[in-house]
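Lab meeting, item 3. Inverse folding demo.
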């Protein structure tokens, strides 16, 4: 399949895949918000768990607290990200 431009500045994968849910080789559209996080688990087939920290303001104490967000993202064979990698994901 032809490698397409997904609209954000990221390194294009060297490998090939025939996955329909791949943003580079398939039909998946990249749109919405962008998140940068760390892969905490890549044990599932073609799926990775990505986590990142954010700061939430507490009005009562006038301070910030750390909170973590965690989502599961598709990890096609051409990208093949592993645990500990810093990745950029989109909705």
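The presenter then showed the designed sequence:
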């Amino acid at each position: 399949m032809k490698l397409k431009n997904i609209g954000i500045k990221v390194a294009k994968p060297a490998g090939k895949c025939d996955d329909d849910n791949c943003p580079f080789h398939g039909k998946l559209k990249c749109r919405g918000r962008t998140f940068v996080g760390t892969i905490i688990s890549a044990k599932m087939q073609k799926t990775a768990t990505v986590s990142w920290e954010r700061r939430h303001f507490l009005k009562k104490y006038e301070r910030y607290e750390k909170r973590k967000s965690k989502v599961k993202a598709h990890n096609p064979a051409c990208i093949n990200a592993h645990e500990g990698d810093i990745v950029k994901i989109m909705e």
